Amino acid sequence: MARGQGINQELSGVLNELWKLDVNRMKPGKDYKINLQGKAGFVAEGSNNARDSARAPLFSYVDEKKLKSMDTYAHFISLLDNYEMSTGVTEHVTKEELQENHLFLDAILKTEVMKVLSLQCAHRYLVRKGLAKSDPAQFKSQLYDIWFNLYRRDKSGGEDSCGFEHVFVGETKHGKEIMGLHNWVQFYHQEKNNHVDYKGYKARNNKDTPDEDDHVLNLQFSWNGLVKPVGSCFIGVSPEFEVALFTIVFFLSDERVTKVTVKVDEYLLEIVVYRFGRSIGTSYPKMISSNNRDF
Fold first, then answer.
1. Which of 8, 112, 230, 239 is most buried (CB neighbours < 10 A)?
2. pLDDT tens, 172-228?
3. Which residues, listed in sequence order, are joined to residue 282 by a DSSP beta bridge?
């Protein structure tokens, strides 16, 4: 891709401001180490058979002490066991889980990333376009609706899903297909507990290989025996950065699907957000290039 072609420059500027403020981003090679190993193979549609091109886990090391010492990660981790895995199974939110949702939002709203989102650069960008609430309390309520409001993903059952569950925790469709699970912390925890088996990385179209210090990765894995042929997630970034980024893109359009190309740090990315009414259905980054190879 030629320099600047198709890139949303205004949005890239906002996201780079947030990137610089993401002080809770973990440092590759120091706070965590990943082992990319081999390139993942082809998986036929509907199949759960995949060649394992990675005998070892993706994460060879994570500084859990540092991870759990940061409020946003600690509150984020407390949310990961709050959901039923399969769609079609009605979610029942306890008072404790409801409180955990609010504690997480309160924690991320205290960070510089979210302060900028809610009060300065990014939020003004959204308010100026008439897309977000200008009052901080209203904005938190808006965030709750986008990420935590339950909706019916499987029309045969009750309210069985929400944006947070799908994107950050992951779920399965009738126990037969992996949906979501685009978060590195959840991936690490599931891998540590032997629920996730990393199968290898997915190269970009030009067949270039990723680096172990890349903060975005396209990958293949199995989760409780089900295979996701290709998934993508940020690596090492904070929960607040991901919430801010996907929230901004969610607000950009009322269309069911919003796809936008941005340059964040050294990464050329396509950010994809699907709407589910007034909430996020799914959202994820797709690596187009890194380390300036295509520039």
1. 239
2. 987 889 999 999 999 999 999 999 999 999 876 555 678 888 999 999 999 998 999
3. 274
Q: Is the Cβ–Cβ distance between 166 and 281 less than 8 Å? A: yes
Known catalytic residues are 166, 182, 228
Per DSSP bridges, beta strands 171-172 and 178-179 are antiparallel
Among residues 269, 265, 163, 292, the alpha carbon closest in space to that of 218 is found at 269
Taking all residues of the chain, what is their mean pLDDT, rounded to a whole number?
88
The closest of 267, 37, 249 to 131, measured between CA atoms, is 249
CA–CA distance from 50 to each of 139, 149, 228, 269 (Å)?
43, 35, 9, 26
CA distances (Å), origin 219, targets 11, 201, 236: 26, 4, 15
Q: What is the pLDDT of residues 82-114, one digit of tens each?
A: 998 888 888 888 999 999 999 999 999 999 998
2 burial via Cβ count (<10 Å: 0-12, 13-18, 19+):
exposed
> In Å, how far are 83, 99, 138, 144 from 95, measured between CA atoms?
14, 6, 21, 15
DSSP assignment of the chain, as one string?
A: --TTTTB-HHHHHHHHHHHHH-TTPPPBTTTEEE---SBP----TT--------SS-SEEEE-HHHHHHSHHHHHHHHHTTSS-SBTTSPP---HHHHHHHHHHHHHHHTSHHHHHHHHSHHHHHHHHTT-S-SSHHHHHHHHHHHHT--B-SSTTSSS-B-HHIIIII-EESTTSSEE---BHHHHHHHHHTTSEEEEEE---TT-PPP-TT-SEEEEEEEETTEEEEEEEEESS--HHHHHHHHHHHHHT-SSSEEEEEEEETTEEEEEEEEEETTEEEEEEEEEEE-TTTT-
Residue 121: the pLDDT is 43
